[in-house]
Specification:
It holds the Pfam family DUF3515. The chain has two domains: 39 residues; 116 residues, 3-Layer(aba) Sandwich (Protein Transport Mog1p, Chain A), CATH 3.40.1000. Helices cover 29% and strands 22% of the residues. The chain contains three helices and eight strands. It has an eight-stranded antiparallel beta sheet. A hairpin with a 7-residue loop joins strand 6 and strand 7. It is elongated. The termini are far apart.
């Protein structure tokens, strides 16, 4: 063997190995990107006082809502979990909030009967509580509102869709323990 033949052998190995290695790296990056590896983390939830717009909630100051609010947990499960969030003054009666991202979780108690509740409404039962689900009507809503419709007062729970079902399950357990069940009132 000549000296030039000995020098070409490593060059050939490198010439073959580099494209194969490059293809493996590109394939690995593609798999990582597909699994959400390059998706930025959601922003940290805001934890300061939350300003809540007033809504018609004639029973918000009643005993039923006071009992429910006193029994609510400080934190809610979810992905990620939500911690209690103070309300900005003037705080609306019958309201509780938890920090979540991209928007907070907000519970309102003592609301008027929702207009969306009709004889043909689809209700979902979660841990013994019947909920009417209301979205903003877009193909991929970012918020969903659940309204408990089978209790002595109407309770609405608005959550980010990405947080999962943990909050509605936990709130259902609390509602089942604290608020009397009643037949669903449809028009």
């Amino acid at each position: 063997m000549s000296a030039s033949s000995d020098l070409r052998r490593p060059a050939v190995v490198v010439a073959i190995a580099l494209p194969v290695l490059l293809a493996l790296v590109v394939a690995g990056l593609a798999l990582y990107a597909r699994s959400g590896g390059f998706t930025p983390a959601p922003p940290a939830p805001e934890t300061g006082p939350l300003a809540v717009a007033p809504v018609d909630a004639p029973a918000a100051g009643g005993q039923a809502c006071a009992s429910l609010l006193a029994a609510l947990p400080t934190d809610l499960p979810g992905d990620p979990a939500s911690t209690g969030r103070p309300l900005a003054e003037p705080a609306q009666p019958g309201v509780k909030a938890w920090a979540a991202s991209p928007r907070p979780v907000v519970l309102r108690c003592g609301l008027t009967r929702p207009q969306e509740l009709t004889p043909t409404s689809t209700l979902t039962e979660v841990n013994g509580v019947s909920w009417l689900t209301i979205t903003d009507g877009t193909p991929e809503p970012s918020l969903v509102t659940y309204v408990a419709v089978d209790r002595e007062v109407y309770v609405a729970l608005t959550t980010p869709t990405r947080i999962g079902s943990g909050p509605v399950q936990t709130i259902s357990d609390t509602i089942a323990r604290t608020l009397r069940e009643q037949p669903v009132q449809v028009r």
